[in-house]
Q: What sequence folds into this?
């Protein structure tokens, strides 16, 4: 189980090695992704709170990166954080997420990105529920839900 100290260590020293890499030119990403997804995934955008696909979705399944399809989160770790965006307590695997310090907008936050394709997902905070204390606050536009039993 990852804890805040692990996230800080990854961001400061070295993120875990991803299982594979997907690297495309930004023009190719722009061609493949719908504009709303491109804005979030490739331009570090944020979708409006509460009016997104997975904020209130608690059905069993997995959540994959909308850019490359990497499995990122399991619905078993999703919870109602009242943040306006889907929230998770843990990634599916320790090397699924890449962590970067984000000082934009006058705030100090920890950016969460797909470790395979570098797509912006959202942010992770140390104010989640026990036992990990983590809250991955993720844009629905960065995810694709795979219903339980449909993951190959």
A:
């Amino acid at each position: 189980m990852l804890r805040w100290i692990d996230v800080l260590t990854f961001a400061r020293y070295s993120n875990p090695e991803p299982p594979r890499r997907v690297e495309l030119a930004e023009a190719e990403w722009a061609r493949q992704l719908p504009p709303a997804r491109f804005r979030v995934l490739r331009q570090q955008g944020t979708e409006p709170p509460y009016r997104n696909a997975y904020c209130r979705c608690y059905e069993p399944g997995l959540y994959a990166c909308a850019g490359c399809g990497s499995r990122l989160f399991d619905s078993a770790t999703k919870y109602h954080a009242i943040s306006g965006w889907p929230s998770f307590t843990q990634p599916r695997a320790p090397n699924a997420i890449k962590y970067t310090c984000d000082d934009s907008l006058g705030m100090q936050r920890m950016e969460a990105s797909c470790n395979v394709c570098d797509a912006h997902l959202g942010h992770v905070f140390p104010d989640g529920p026990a036992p990990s204390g983590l809250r991955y606050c993720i844009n629905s536009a960065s995810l694709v839900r795979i219903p339980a039993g449909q993951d190959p």
Remarks:
- The beta strands are 61-65, 71-74, 78-79, 87-88, 97-102, 109-114, 120-125, 135-138, 143-147.
- The two ends are 25 Å apart (CA to CA).
- Residues 26 and 129 are 37 Å apart (CA to CA).
- The chain has three helices and nine strands.
